[in-house]
Design goal:
Largest sheet: 12 strands, antiparallel
Number of strands: 12
Helix content: 25-40%
Radius of gyration: 19 Å
Structural class: alpha+beta
Distance between the termini: 27 Å
Strand content: 15-25%
Shape: globular
Length: 359
């Protein structure tokens, strides 16, 4: 969230809604948390579709903001559902049957890819180069009242279960546009097939820590920054999730879901280099087919990859790839469970305004 990234990508009050979440599927292969997450993501997408169908005749209540330290692999298995919901729109979640539309958007064969070669020794050097490139970026400094605009292409793979048969299927690659105010209190989301064409409001009563202002206030010393990220993620992660993985996912979200100031972005990359288990990958492909190098970390049989242009080292997108699978697991080795590509990131004067458009 890249939820998600995404994907991302919880409401601050997620503990209040946890009791509403469905229980784990009985046929889940041991240790396959991603199975749970993708089932719930499909359910969330259907909730968004329902919202968009009713928005033409009735107002849509503002949806809550997520905490960027709560996403995919940070809270698992059950709490990840609430987090994923916040990433795609913050809608309240309700219970339901196992076949109530969760896989409605899963329309085609599972996304697959060639798995790039990982190199643990190459990660520090590559991250140092990426950090230097990020620090050299001449991005504009947003002014009060402006918004961070991010356009992307995203797709996900889900588990579809009919009777006693489960298979992996994917939704179509689709566009996503999000506007965030600098303090994170206001925003707008348009996601093809999941909101109406006009989109839905994002709203928060208080600032949230993934907003531009919060990012700008982060320490730029990599060691201090990493310790803060560990503290934040430790406060919300499921005990089953290693704290190093939670920190890696949190950094990825901060890098992909906003517009970090150059010095903060550079510090986040340097902090990531200090996390055990981080590797470089010689080839990875974003959601639009752009090849690049990647910084990645494996957990529970899946590898989260941040993809960068091989020449400029500009961030391209993120994907999650199955690299280990148990016998009978519908998610085979090489399955891409989430993929995203950032196509534009800019500062604009108002929500729903696209870059180059006069306000």
């Amino acid at each position: 969230m890249n939820a998600s990234p995404s994907h991302r990508p919880h409401p601050a009050e997620w503990t209040e809604t946890q009791s509403l979440l469905p229980s784990a599927e009985r046929d889940l292969p041991a240790g396959r948390h991603q199975f749970h997450k993708e089932q719930m993501m499909a359910r969330i997408h259907e909730d968004l579709r329902t919202t968009s169908r009713t928005s033409a005749t009735s107002p849509v209540a503002p949806v809550k903001r997520p905490n960027p330290f709560l996403r995919r692999a940070v809270l698992l298995p059950t709490a990840a559902f609430a987090l994923a919901g916040a990433v795609v729109g913050g809608l309240a979640l309700t219970g339901g049957g196992a076949d109530d539309g969760r896989t409605a958007l899963a329309t085609g064969p599972a996304l697959t890819t060639r798995i790039g070669a990982a190199d643990a020794k190459g990660a520090p050097q590559l991250l140092e180069r990426i950090s230097l490139a990020a620090a050299d970026t001449s991005a504009p400094t947003p002014r009060k009242g402006q918004y961070i605009y991010i356009a992307s292409k995203v797709a996900d793979t889900y588990i579809k279960t009919v009777g006693d048969k489960s298979e992996a299927v994917s939704n179509e690659l689709h566009s996503r546009q999000v506007w965030n105010s600098l303090d994170g209190r206001d925003g707008w989301l348009i996601e093809a097939g999941q909101t109406s064409d006009k989109g839905i409001t994002l709203k928060s009563d208080t600032p949230f820590s993934g907003a531009y202002n919060a990012l700008a206030a982060l320490p730029t010393d990599p060691d201090t920054l990493l310790q803060r990220i560990y503290r934040e993620s430790d406060a919300v992660r499921d005990p089953e999730v290693p704290r190093d993985q939670a920190a890696f996912v949190a950094i990825g979200d901060l890098l992909t879901a906003s517009y970090p100031p150059a010095e903060v972005g550079a510090a986040l990359y340097k902090a990531a280099a200090k996390i055990p288990g981080v590797v470089s990958v010689d080839d990875a492909v974003d959601a639009t087919g752009r090849h690049g190098v990647a910084i990645a970390r494996e957990n529970d049989g899946e590898r989260t990859e941040w993809i960068f242009d091989k020449k400029t080292l500009r961030f391209l997108g993120e994907r999650i790839v199955v690299v280990k699978a148990a016998a009978g697991d519908p998610l085979k080795v090489g399955t891409v469970t989430h993929t995203s590509a950032i196509t534009e990131r800019a500062v604009v004067d108002a929500d729903k305004q696209v870059p180059g458009q006069v306000s």
